[in-house]
Amino acid sequence: MNTKLKGVLQLLVILLVTAAVCVVAYTGIGGAKRGSARNIRLGLDLAGGVSVTYEATKENPTAQEMKDTVYKMQMRVQNESTEASVYQEGSNRVTVDVPDVDDPQAVLDKLGKAGALEFVLYSNVTVGEDGKTATYDKKDVIIDGSMLKTAEAATQQDSTTGQTENVVKLSFNAKGTKKFKNVTTDHVGEQFSIIYDGEIVSSPVIREAIDGGEAVISGSFDEFSKAEDMASTLRIGALPLELKNIRSNIVGAKLGGDALKTSLIAGAIGLALVIIFMIVMYWIPGVAASLALLFYVGASVLAINGLDVTLTLPGIAGVILAIGMAVDANCIIFTRIREELATGKTVRSAIKIGFEKALSAIIDGNVTTLIAAVVLYIKGSGTVMGFAQTLAIGIILSMFTAIFVTRWILYAFVGLGLDNPKFYGTQKTRKPINFVGNIKKYAIISGCLLLLCIGGLVMNMVKMGQPLNYSLEFLGGSSTSITFTDYQGEGFDASGNASADFKNEVTDVVKTAADVSEAELSDVSGEKTLIVRTTAFTEDQQKKVIAAVEEKYGVSDKSIEVETISASVSNEMRMDAVVAVLIAAVGMLIYIWIRFKNLAFGASSVIALLHDVMVVLMVYAVGSASITVGSTFIACMLTIVGYSINATIVIFDRVRENRKKLGNTDLAEIVNTSITETLSRSFNTSITTLIMVLCLAVLGVDSIRQFAVPMMAGIISGCYSSVCLAGTVWYFMNRSAQKKAKAKKTGSKNKKK
Prior knowledge:
Blueprint: H1 3-27, E1 41-42, H2 44-47, E2 49-56, H3 63-77, E3 85-89, E4 93-98, H4 104-111, E5 117-127, E6 134-144, E7 148-157, E8 164-172, H5 174-186, E9 192-196, E10 199-202, E11 214-217, H6 224-236, E12 243-251, H7 258-282, H8 284-306, E13 310-311, H9 313-342, H10 347-379, H11 383-415, H12 439-464, H13 472-475, E14 477-483, H14 500-514, E15 519-524, E16 529-534, H15 539-553, E17 560-565, H16 571-596, H17 599-622, H18 631-662, H19 667-677, H20 679-699, H21 702-752
């Protein structure tokens, strides 16, 4: 087979596979449309879901009991969806909003279970015919849920029937182990019952003393999933309060019905602009990267769908970051190819060597970000987990497309005869820029940004009593539920669903009457009811809102209900996010230290990362009048952490290479040369990522814009810190070590003389 025919076949296969992936991502497979973008689970912010409100049966529960109940329900609901929302309403109610799941009612029923476990010794036990109820004289509670260490679903063989059965294996803590041993020793031959939420799940006979600190619940699980549900509930612990379901309904998207549509349009336009940019900048390699990028987007949709990930705005942020990293990997490769072409190598040889030299930077940059994604998924909760899932998927796919798909396409082009170096461009040799010598200028710029950040935080404390303009998700506030049964005007369709214009109008009426800047609206499907959540109302604001709504829409005050709601992102969840980021930063530092064999590389990377976080924080502080801090704030910060560390590692990879190649050359010269050689990659990657985010800022709804604007600042800062700060900081950390080494070497030479 001649080379040209082989190239044609190779390119044809790649085009067919890419087309197939994109078609499946758009249309899906079979009647269920599996794999289609339309089948991706969407979060509450983009598509709404089911909302249920529970009420505590206990009269006047304490604030601590309510807080603990909300937190444990947040932990429970994570098993069903990483993007569910739980918050307190009033003094004795808990509301759970669950996004698109297969059986929302089953989920909500499960969440309301008390989850109480007891091992109880009885006297005179008579078990009913159903095997679950009994009459008895209660004797003693052996074990309760507080004595559990862990609970896991498993399977085992029934010793009587020989059949495999589903069970829950329990391990007790030290207190539980000791008590269980003492009781089973003293009551051999007696029967006890394992009771879960008031129902007997099994009643075994104590045959011998049990001192291993373990027990098994069996005989009650016809499906393994039921054993998993019980094990999960037991691990989290029983709810402090008994709850009853008082209402449930379907709610609309928190970010508005247009949020998803405008985000998709912005993403498509951004992707098209990135493709044009890559082709203009890199010619034939740019075409290869564009085809690989289309494959990546289609594969990402299939992966998100296939892994049943719930996609939210933070999830979209993870996808955007991964697209930026996919483009970045190609920029690194193409820069290397051009450098090899400049030495006179053939195109095929330049492609081979270029990929080999780019591999370490691509792997190190992606692995460090993947470490962050894994830690965020394991230690984070809610929004953080959703971001981590999409980011991890994107990183793995972007590495595959850059390392393999782009390479196959380039070789196919060479096989077609497109092997003239002019189609690939050549890397211009630049005189090294003295970045290290400009450290004072960088210090002044970064110092001014820090002062601006501190000034903004202080001004906000003076004006608002808080450093940032926290959103409802962080602070809680007031929920105004308006039922428009008596309303005779336009705004609802025949099914009782409000139009987008009417929703905006109602939101503005509430905001104006209460004189607040932020409001979040959701609609109850088919019930002519809108719920507007705002910052907390005073009694005077509440009266003004009720009066304004009555006057505007002619509804009675009985159709307007105002309740105080807690934050949906609890202090514990925020702390989870902070701890996850800190652990991720330490993990990345350790990885960089090991890979680069120099702690200063890791330390200077983290310093650059903290600088970029500070810049984004400054934008939130200075722009507090129009930018609020909510779950999108967490997503933005996490995105910048990933972007910053990746940008820095590319430069450090070149520093590592040049230290070996240039030997005893002055460190300052090595750093300056390395940064200059990677300058085009730094700018091009920042530009392509900025294009994506800029499209979201220009075309997106206000809530999307509040995420996109700080993101743009973070991307610009990431480019600045990686180019101007990271390498320079590393140089000053290593300068003293180099001086000592030179002095030692000079001393050795003098002794020989």
